[in-house]
Amino acid sequence: MPELQEFKCPACGGAMEFVTKTQRLQCPFCDTEMGIDEYEKLQAQEEPASPPDLPKPQQQASWEQQQTEDWDQQETSHLKIYSCHSCGGEIIADETTGASSCPFCGNPVVMTGQFSGDLKPNYVIPFQKDKKDAKEQYMKYLEGKSFLPKIFKDQNHIDEIKGVYVPFWLYDAHVHADMAFLGTNVRTWTDGRNDYTETSEYSVQREGVIRFENVPEDGSKEMDDNMMESIEPFDFSKAVPFKTAYLAGYYANRYDVDAQSRMDRAKERVTKSTISEFSKTANHYTTVSTQRSQVDFTKATYKYVLYPVWLLNTTYKGEHYHFAMNGQTGKFVGNLPVDNGAYWRFILIGAVIVTVIMFVLQCLILV
Amino acid sequence: MLKKIYAIFLSLALCMMHVIPVFAADEAYVYDHAEVIAASSEQMLNDLAQEIYDTYDVRTVFILFEDETENEAKEAAFDQYDDTFGRDDGIILVVNKADDYFLVLHRGNALLTDDQKVELQSIYNAENIYKDGVEKDFEYIRSIYSGESPMPAQTIPDERLQPLLVDDADLLSTSEEEELLGKLTEISERQNLDVVVVTNNDLGGKTATEYADDFFDYNGYGYGSNHDGILFLVSMDDRSWALSTTGYGIEAFTDAGQEYMTDRIIPYLSEGNYIDAFMTYADLCDQFIEQAHTGQPYDVGNMPKGKVPWFLLPINALFGLLVMWPFANHKKNKLKTVYKAQSAKAYLVPKSLKFSRKNDQFIGKHVTHVPHVDPNRGGGGHGGGGSSIHIGSSGVSHGGSSGHF
């Protein structure tokens, strides 16, 4: 049985949760609270820490006939079964799930195997925004959006809202770039008889180094990469060394896309920024064109972290709409449905108004 | 026998001699049927008339009838004159012994004004002796021709001699003429300004402007002492047109205003649609005179405002769409916030950019030039507005414009 960790309150035995406001663990039953470090010490005292060093528990589920659905081979291999310490209920989770809650008793649990040994994240940014914040941001997000179907807004129905620690790879890069530009300065003047144009050309060279730190790319297949990029930036300076206690009460996944796979995307972004920064130093000409640009990575390292993300989704007209909020900064993103009728009505009515106004003006001027 | 023949011949010859002087005097200017003028006086008058003719190319003729009536005298006078002088320019003074009438007839181009005719009569009547009267009249005529007299040879009539529409080139049908004339008359009477249309096939060597000016003046067009009017001439001679304005017309139809009018009239002429050209002309004249009464005739910066063309509506609609569409799109895009990140700018280590090489090297320069075009040239000549005027052959000032179609 893969190891589950629960955060038992030392006073009453209830399941403690990480509270964003205080950044401490708090028991929702007896209000006892303590800091993460404190709790860890407590844990260490009670149980000798024996972190399993198996990279991946291999236990497969044994299925009983009670199962109402037929799970085919593909699906079952992605699932793991855990047993809840509090109520003994079976927790069926995806192989990457690192933190979840028991579907029977609601206790938050952490699958320690997912985050130990080689899989242990270097850092984590604890949640700064709680569920209330997420809901509020969602409401705010819906405000002031033209062409949002009225029903969507009025319905206001969130199917699901959960706080997830998303696995990220953070890349540091030392970059060397060598760029050459052709700059021209144009000057014009006239002496009444002729109009003169003087074009001065310059060969512009920029070679140098530049550094980037903590460029994030999510390491989870199921997380939409674009959505994860959209809620950036994360402020790494607020990250802390990883402790499982931070996960209490939230969901978490371990990575299933490795660092190498995401490195290309990180390099792509870094290259673009490098060229941009270098070009900025050569833009004091009338026109600039890039003759050559060569970007090399002299050093590229990566870290494994968990970043906090609030996920919401709702259903409208049979379509699922997903939203994400940066659990640290509160930045809210998501694509909303468009009321095309409203869109076209806006254009047509606006066009009619403009037409009438222009016509009236023309009549006044010309008649 | 031979002596007898010679004697008869000689007497015949002597008889002929009496006749010859009569034939020699074929250029007689004075015809005294009542025998009131002495032969020597007659001779003197003839010499005077001859002198006048030699100098000024005009025959001054005096005929005194016994007791012919005015009409009889007139006819006889013309007959006599034509027999003697043919088509020469001439002035014939015709009276009878009883002074019942004093006629001043003209042949050719020897035109006198009414005032001059009156003057001749009064001069004649001032004398008691016939000979003196005729002599003074001849002298007066001479003075006219020598320029001592202020009156020009051609006169400006007081009453209109021709209608408001003269279609010598026959560009309009009868019904069109009727319609146009009716309109011109109505406008002219209501506005107290003659609005005239003239067409012809031959300018007789004059320019269109000259012809228009002269036609207006010598045919007595124009209201009031200033001869307020406007005349539009279309000549098929060289497909030219001219506008001639007089009196208040000069003020009401400024140069810019005329351009405005002709811009709207000439295209009709070019396509051969004369009735519409002239109807438009008449309507525009009406509009312009009306405007001029307000004290601010149409001019540069104060032009009539036309109707708004209908095709502006779809154009406006298109514009409206083009304006609203990006605006709407901008709003629509706010609904989509999930994008691929463009860069890693937020993760740039501040001040980590260090250059190992940073060169801005001047390669060279070149200069090109194009001739300078002054954007203000080539525009219309009516910078300030107003009406330009010129003086016609009659001495009267006219405004106007001309062109071809």
Description of the structure:
Chain A is an alpha+beta fold and 367 residues long. Chain A has two domains: 4-47 and 77-120, no CATH class; 131-336, no CATH class. Helices cover 24% and strands 36% of the residues of chain A. Chain A has helices at 36-46, 73-77, 131-142, 150-155, 225-230, 259-280, 340-366; strands at 4-5, 17-19, 24-26, 33-34, 79-83, 90-94, 97-101, 108-111, 123-124, 160-190, 194-218, 240-241, 251-253, 287-316, 319-326, 332-334. In chain A, the strands form three sheets. In chain A, strands 1, 7, 8, 9, 10, 11, 12, 13, 14, 15 and 16 form an eleven-stranded mixed beta sheet that branches. A three-stranded antiparallel beta sheet of chain A has the order 2-3-4. In chain A, strand 3 (24-26) and strand 4 (33-34) form a beta hairpin. The termini of chain A are far apart. Chain B is α/β, with parallel strands linked by helices and 405 residues long. Among the domains of chain B are: 22-146, Roll (Diaminopimelate Epimerase, Chain A, domain 1), CATH 3.10.310.50; 165-302 and 390-404, Diaminopimelate Epimerase, Chain A, domain 1 (Roll), CATH 3.10.310.50. Helix content of chain B is 44%, strand content 19%. Chain B has eleven helices and eleven strands. In chain B, the strands form two sheets. A six-stranded mixed beta sheet of chain B has the order 5-6-7-8-11-10, with helices on both faces. Chain B has a four-stranded mixed beta sheet with strand order 1-2-3-4, with helices on both faces. In chain B, strand 7 (229-235) and strand 8 (240-246) form a beta hairpin. Chain B is elongated. The chains are: A alpha+beta (367), B alpha/beta (405). Chains A and B meet through strand 10, strand 11, helix 5, helix 6 and strand 16 of A and helix 11 and strand 9 of B.
